[in-house]
Amino acid sequence: MSDNGIKHITDDIVQVRIPLPYALNHVNCYLVQGSDGWTMVDSGLHTEPAKSQWKTAFDQLDITAGDITQIILTHMHPDHFGMAGWWQAQVETPMPVYLPRGEKHTADMFYGVEDVTDYHAWLLSCGMSREITDNVAQAFTSTRNLTKPYPIKQDYIDAGGTIRMGERDFQMIHAPGHSDGQIIFYDEADKLLLCGDHVLMKITPNIGLWPHSDGNPLGNFIASLESLAELDVRLALPGHRWLIEDWRGRVKELIAHHEHRLQITLSAFDEGHETVYDVATHVFPIDRFTPHEWRFAMAETLAHLDLLERQGKLTHVKEDVWRYQISS
C-alpha cells in the first residue's frame, strides 16, 4: 500500500483506501479502468475525510467524476453504500448505481425508515439495558446519517450472471452471511476476485442476525465458504485490510474460527448466561467496545445462538427478553 492509501493493484485496477471514523478505520474501494471510463466498486461513508481521499485519488489518476461510468456496490452496508448518492450528485447526468437485488429489501428498510423504535426493541429483547440501548441506537442513527444523499436512482444486479467492468467480465456470485444479498465478482480469466466483505485478512467479517436479516446467516456463511473454497483465485481484493493471496487457506481459517466461536458461545451456558447480551459479555471484550461496536457484537452473538439452536444444542424462549438454554 502506498503511503497515501492509493495503489495500482493491476494496470487497470486501483485500490483506494477510504477512511472510516471507527476502530476499523478504512474501507477498500476500487476503480476499474476501461476504454470508455472507470467503474467504482463501493464508495465509503459520506464524510469530509472520505471526500478528501477521493479527491487525492482522482487528482493522482487525472480523472473527474464525469469519468465514472457506473458505481457497483457489493452490498448495502453504510461504509460501502454511503457516498453513492453523493457521487451521482456531482455530475449533470447521474451515473448508474448497481446494488445486488438481494439487498433491496434490507436497504429499503435500513435507509427508508427514520424511526428506530423496532431496532431499539430488538436490543432490549436481547437483554441489553435501556441506557446502553439508547447509546447504541444513537450510534446507529449517526452512521445512517453519513449515507445521505441517497442515490437518485438504483438499478439491481443478480447473482449468476456476468457484469462488465472496464475491459473485464466478472461472474457475479452470491455470498451471503455478512449481508444477505452480497455479491462478489470473479474474473475467471485472470483468477481475480473482488470479494467485498465476505473474506477478510486478520479480522473476520461480522456475521450478524439483525431484525431485518434472513434466517440462518452463520449457516449460510459457512456453506458459502465451503462452496467457494475450491474457486481458483490468484488474488482476492477485499473490502477491508490487505489483499488475499492464499484464498483457500484463508477460507479454511474462517470456517475454523466460527467452529471455535460456536464452542465458546456454548460454553457461556456453563456459567449461567441466558440472554443474548449476557452471552455476548462472555464471548467479546465488552469493556473496550464503543456503542457502534456493541450492535455488531449483539448481532453476531445472536447469529451463533441461532445456529446452535438449529443444530439442536440450544432451545429458545421468546419472552420480553429472549432466553436460551442447553437442550435436554
Indicate the low-confidence ranges by residue numbers: none
| CATH superfamily label | Ribonuclease Z/Hydroxyacylglutathione hydrolase-like
Write the H/E string, N to C: EEEEHEHHEHHHEEEEEHEHHHEE
Number of domains: 1
CATH topology: Metallo-beta-lactamase, Chain A
Overall pLDDT confidence? 94
- As laid out across the biggest beta sheet, the strand order is 1-2-3-4-5-6-7
| Extended strand count | 14
User: Which class in CATH terms?
Assistant: Alpha Beta
**N- and C-termini, Cα separation:** 53 Å
Largest sheet descriptor: 7 strands, mixed
What's the Cα radius of gyration?
20 Å
Kindly estimate the percentage of residues that lie in beta strands according to DSSP.
Answer: 15-25%
Name the shape in a single word.
Answer: globular
- The CATH architecture comes to 4-Layer Sandwich
Share of residues in helices: 25-40%
Helical element count?
A: 10
Structural class: alpha/beta
Describe the structure.
With 328 residues, the protein is of the alpha/beta class. Helix content is 36%, strand content 21%. The chain contains ten helices and 14 strands. The strands form three sheets. The protein has a seven-stranded mixed beta sheet with strand order 1-2-3-4-5-6-7. A five-stranded mixed beta sheet has the order 8-9-10-11-12, with no helix packed on it. Strands 13-14 form a two-stranded antiparallel ribbon. The protein starts with 5 loop residues before the first strand and ends with a strand.
